[in-house]
Amino acid sequence: MPAAKLISLRLPLIICSVLAAGGIVAGALLDHLVMGILFAVGMGMGLYNARLMQKQVLRVISEENPTKRAIVGSSTQRLIVLTVIALALGFFMKPDGLGVFVGLAVFQLVFMGNTMLPVMKEYRRQ
Questions:
Q1: How far apart are CA 88 and CA 85, in angstroms?
Q2: Which pLDDT does position 4 carry in this prediction?
Q3: What is the pLDDT at residue 116?
Q4: In the prediction, which pLDDT does 1 show?
Q5: Can you tell me the distance from the alpha carbon of 32 to that of 55, in angstroms, rounded to the nearest whole number?
Q6: Distance (Å, whole) CA 115 – CA 103
Q7: What is the rounded distance in angstroms from the CA atom of residue 47 to the CA atom of residue 41?
Q8: Are the C-beta atoms of residues 78 and 52 closer than 8 Å to each other?
Q9: Helix, strand, coil % (nearest 5) of the chain?
């Protein structure tokens, strides 16, 4: 089996950095700087989650007998921790805590777009 490698998150990192900076500036201009910062934190949490997911999947598939259970178990733990952090920030920093959830959602859109680009290019090539 060929060695698996991590998919580059460089483009999502660049896009998220620009959007996070824009979110902080927009938050400051609208007198909600904390919301802008939490928007950036949410996007950072999404990037961190994506990187951890890649590493965990690589670790599992490199084992001699990889199982779905190993992937599900590690994913569940990771998502529970990130969810608790997001919910705590959202609850204790009302109403600006909403920025964390918006940042996570925007990250998912960026990540999905980054994932779909190579597929669409390949589809057009055929």
A1: 5
A2: 58
A3: 86
A4: 44
A5: 35
A6: 18
A7: 10
A8: yes
A9: 80, 0, 20
Residue with tokens 């950036």: 40
pLDDT in tens, the chain (126 residues): 445 567 788 999 999 999 999 999 999 999 999 999 999 999 999 999 999 988 888 888 887 787 778 778 888 989 999 999 999 999 999 999 999 999 999 999 999 998 888 788 888 887
Q: Which residue has the tokens 């609850």?
A: 91
- CB-based contact 95:37 (threshold 8 Å): no
What pTM was estimated for this model as a whole?
A: 0.85
86 three-class SS:
helix
Contact (CB, 8 A) for 12 and 47 = yes
Helix 98-125, helix 68-92: angle, nearest 10? 140
DSSP state of 65: S
Taking residue 17's Cβ as centre, other Cβ atoms within 10 Å add up to 14
Rg (CA), the chain: 17
Contact partners, residue 22, CB within 8 Å, separation at least 6: none
